[in-house]
Write a structure and sequence with these properties.
- By secondary structure, this protein is mainly α.
- It has 17 helices and no strands.
- The protein is elongated, with a radius of gyration of 23 Å.
- Keywords: Chaperone, Cytoplasm, Isopeptide bond, Membrane, Mitochondrion, Mitochondrion outer membrane, Phosphoprotein, Repeat, TPR repeat, Ubl conjugation.
- Belongs to the Tom34 family.
Length: about 300
């Protein structure tokens, strides 16, 4: 005798999650579908729940290679709750699998507007850029649909979600170093990295530091041998008050170039903001050994010393 199915939306979703974790994707898809029908029959307005169910069923379709239905369900999920991270990523993956690269590029870029640290999206943009350049050459950007502007409210909604919703972000952050250290960049990769870094520099000049971080991150996926790219990204983190990230990037920059004055200065600024005054003074001292007459460094040194009194 078959086990009795749950009679609530929550129970059906939980059962679907369990089937999905067990690799029973078709079964999970059926359970999510039942939950959707029950929710819709009930007539209650719960767009968040309905969106999650569509997104979960889309994940089943993606696992089974049914990219067309994955795209349909992701689109339904996004119609209910626009700019949701998971359906955007899943739809991008489905578009990519179907070689619909312009649409995949747009979805990956949209994700990066919500959270620029999602490396699966950064890597997706990187792959799509290569594929589009191979297909359309230097005019590839003209082939893209319009990239939607993510409202601040959607970014705040993502940032306010519980920490478990950010697992993908946390997992993907560790991929950057592994991805770049595992290969020696080709001459073409180095050139692409240079172009992306310059695009990042232009965005910094325009005051668009969040998008500049995306460009620098893309650049580092092509080549992680340029110290200035790390120190430039550190500057963006400083402006955005992401001080721990700034310290990490400056440290990476200094491993590549131990005399990178900007990296010492920016790390000293970040340490000061983090109230780690001893580390800040140590970096200023290292900087002044390289450039004894560096005015901003002397000024920063005075500010830090005042905080120590």
């Amino acid at each position: 005798m078959a086990p009795k199915l749950p009679d609530s939306v929550e129970g059906l979703r939980a059962a679907g999650n369990q089937s999905f974790r067990s690799g029973q994707y078709a079964e999970a898809s059926g359970l999510y579908g039942r939950a959707l029908r029950l929710l819709q029959t009930r007539g209650s307005s719960d767009p968040e729940e309905e969106s999650i169910l569509y997104s979960n069923r889309a994940a089943c379709h993606l696992k089974d290679g049914n990219c067309t239905d994955c795209i349909k369900d992701c689109t339904s999920a996004l119609a209910l709750v626009p700019f949701s991270m998971k359906p955007l990523l899943r739809r991008a993956s489905a578009f990519e699998a179907l070689e619909r690269y312009p649409l995949a590029y747009v979805d990956y870029k949209t994700v990066l507007q919500i959270d620029s640290s999602v490396m699966s999206a950064v890597e997706g943009v990187n792959r799509m850029t290569r594929a589009l350049m191979d297909s359309f050459g230097s005019e590839w950007r003209r082939k893209l649909p319009a990239i939607p502007v993510v409202p601040v409210s959607a970014q705040k909604r993502w940032n306010s979600l519980p920490s478990e919703n950010h697992k993908e972000t946390a997992k993907s952050k560790s991929k950057e170093t592994a991805a770049t250290k595992s290969r020696v960049p080709s001459a073409g990769d180095v050139e692409r990295a240079r172009v992306l870094k310059e695009e990042g520099n232009e965005l910094v000049k325009k005051g668009n530091h969040k998008k500049a971080i995306e460009k620098y991150s893309e650049s580092l996926l092509f080549s992680n041998l340029e110290s200035a790219t790390y120190s430039n990204r550190a500057l963006c983190h400083l402006v955005l008050k992401q001080y721990k990230e700034a310290v990490k990037d400056c440290t990476a920059a200094l491993k590549l170039d131990g005399k990178n004055v900007k990296a010492f200065y920016r790390r000293a600024q970040a340490y000061k903001a983090l109230k780690d005054y001893k580390s800040s003074l140590a970096d200023i001292s290292s900087l002044l050994q390289i450039e004894p007459r560096n005015g901003p460094a002397h000024k920063l040194q005075q500010e830090v010393n005042q905080n120590l009194k």
